[in-house]
Amino acid sequence: MKKINHYLAFCAVFALLIAGCSKDDPGTSEDPISSDTAVLQLGPVLNDMQTRQEQEIPDCSEEEPAFAQVVLEYGDGPTLVETVIPIGEDDQGLFTLYSPDLEIPIPSGETSVSVTLLEFVVWTDDGTGNPGDVIWVAPIEGSEFADFVDQPVGENFIFDLRAGSKNYVNVDVICYDDRNVNLYGYQFFTITPVPLIEFCFFGNYCTPEGRHYVASYSISVWYSEDGQKGELIYDGLENNVVGEGNDAYADPLCFFLPDRLDIDDTEEEYYIEIRLLPDTPGYNGAGELVGEGPISVDEIKAFFGPEGTLDYYHFQYGCEDGVPPPFGRPEAMRYKACLKYIDSADETAGYAYISVEGTVAIAVVQAFGLKPGVMHPQHIHTNASCDNPGGVEVPLDYNEGGFPVPEIGDLGISFMNYAEAIPGFFLQNVEDRTVVVHGKDVNGEYSPSTPVLCGELEEY
């Protein structure tokens, strides 16, 4: 596959927005207020110029405030909240926008809850919709700058929120310059990042006569759990060709997905649908769903290459190679096996996919850490357990003969990427089979028949 440069983007803001008002608040959200919650909104109030001059508060940046970094706690636990919220402005001043992070639950049987504001820092926009530079800070009580404001943040900045109310709270801030941040009472200013991973697609369409064209298509993405769709993330991202006929071209379609640090990469997954669009050159049909299915973050990272490159997922509708796993046509049966080492001394891992439509299967095997430069026989085996795979049912080789050979990448790690269409595939109960990859050094000699990886196939 063609490689394209990319950079892993780290989003400094993943949780956005805040709201509230005990008086008529600026920018009031239209969201209804539950009787067992209270909505909070915070308004940064900058000391006036005269006060700054008298107290020699640092000079102010002329940049516009865009985000508030907030740390607070509430309840008897207490429950800690750390979030970043965009800042809005109207004729009454600045205010944080609505955020579900600041929809504070009221304990059962109570009419209010106590909240303590621990930190409050104002950032600019870096031009891409993310926080850029710190410009205003609410000093922490006990710091050298605490006397510059009427109410520093900290353990004594306490207020009560009533059930079913919107609460607006002013926060005194002062300007920030490059002197030591501990003068404000902070060790450092940080926004906990939520990493984003990039995933790219490219598609082709083949006419019944076998002529290839670049495809126009759309991608929709949902959060997923156990292979089922959850909350929608992207609704119909389109990638349209430019030009006509054989002169048509298109760049890969790339987008970003969260890579949460608190969920294992093998468990965090997304559900993706691929639709061919009617303006595809050579295609005379309506928009059509040509591929769908779940994919884990771990599987997405298998597309990452060395030195900031990645391989895109390449599908071909109507072509011999088809729509390769992990996605497949709606009518296709899809199976996946997580390949694990048989000997714990072998640092190997990978995935195997089998997509079956009619009597044609598309098999994909991706594996890391295998011995490079030599063929690795691989097969679908009879049984459902890696403890006893049984005999060979279907070889996963190339139609022209031979098994795949891993190559060493730029980072010094071997990678094997096998993909092949298997005609005349009549194997039943694929979900009750295993995939075994063979080939490893034994007593100093390469043994092509020795199993090295195994995975139990499951329908998905």
From TrEMBL:
SUPFAM superfamilies: Cu,Zn superoxide dismutase-like. GO terms for biological process: superoxide metabolic process. InterPro entries: SOD-like_Cu/Zn_dom_sf (IPR036423). GO terms for molecular function: metal ion binding. It comes from the Bacteria. Belongs to the Cu-Zn superoxide dismutase family. This is Superoxide dismutase family protein.
